[in-house]
Design a protein that fits this description.
InterPro entries: Calcineurin-like_PHP_lpxH (IPR024654), Metallo-depent_PP-like (IPR029052). The radius of gyration is 17 Å and the shape is globular. The chain has about 280 residues and is α/β, with parallel strands linked by helices.
Length: about 280
């Protein structure tokens, strides 16, 4: 849980915006993101990351450096906050004893050892939430929840969950027309009575759909489109092997399916028979 909420105003961003989350220490995905942006003439100042630069993959130091070199805005994810504070675990919100909980120890320890103190200090200075204006609409940006950074919010979460978070955000930053979020790893848009809740998805891990491509979102003219991001999967897997990380997440990069579904609500799980 968080206490004081630090927020940043990114100003007016009226051109096309690249929205993404969860680089997850996947350097090859960050490089593919940079190429995607360059092909569309989107500068770093028009890119927003919803946090968790560091997580499951093998190149945490290089991924942080690459994201910083892009010059994009970043809100703090639970991984940034935990690493910056010297915490013993990622604070991802996984159920104790779940597969994801047990697997997180290895990559978190690797990241904590690989990152320099200066990089961790940079993480600690990131805002918890941000706001910006786009085409006359005001957007809020957060990672998971406003006061619980590791709160999982899904496309099928109850309406009351979105209302609670909307109210919590507006208590900090004032009225917003739409919210951009991350953490859960699955891209979606939920139309709520308040406005659109937009999860941009993540670039570092596939969205549990059986394909290797990850996701990035583009906000242009008030409309959001999701795009598949192809990258050097073999290179990312090699980085994970070099770091001595467990095979489970490397297998996920290749298969397109997460190593465990116990974090997912039942409606978003994929039956094993459907995986082929």
């Amino acid at each position: 849980m968080q206490a004081k909420i630090n927020w940043a105003d990114l100003g007016v961003l009226d051109g096309p915006l690249l929205l993404f989350g969860g680089p997850y220490s996947n350097l090859q995905a960050v490089e593919a993101l940079a190429a995607f942006a360059a092909a569309r003439d989107v500068p770093g100042g028009q890119m927003i990351c919803t946090g968790d630069i560091v997580a499951y993959c093998g190149a945490p130091r290089e991924s942080v450096a690459a994201i910083r070199a892009l010059g994009c805005a970043v809100v703090a994810g639970n991984c940034e906050l935990q690493l910056a504070s010297g915490a013993e675990d990622c604070g991802c919100g996984f159920a104790p004893g779940s597969s994801c909980d047990m697997l997180s120890g290895a990559w978190y320890t690797h990241a904590a050892q690989a990152l320099a103190a200066e990089a961790k200090a940079w993480m600690g200075a990131l805002p918890d939430v941000a706001v910006f204006q786009h085409q006359g609409q005001r957007y809020g940006v957060l990672h998971g929840g406003v006061r619980d950074v590791a709160r999982f919010i899904w496309s099928e979460s109850a309406e009351a969950v979105f209302e609670e978070e909307w109210q919590a955000l507006e208590e900090v930053v004032g009225p917003v027309d739409h919210i951009i979020a991350g953490h859960s790893g699955l891209p979606f848009i939920r139309e709520t009575p308040r406005g659109r809740w937009i999860n941009a998805g993540v670039i570092g891990m596939p969205p549990h759909d059986g394909a290797q491509q990850t996701r990035v979102a583009v906000l242009d003219g008030g409309e959001v489109t999701f795009h598949r991001l192809s990258y050097d999967v073999a290179g990312a897997v090699a980085d994970m092997a070099k770091a001595g990380l467990p095979r489970a997440y490397a297998d996920a990069l290749q298969s397109g399916y997460w190593p465990s579904e116990d974090v997912l609500p039942p409606g978003l799980r994929v039956p094993s028979l459907a995986r082929g």
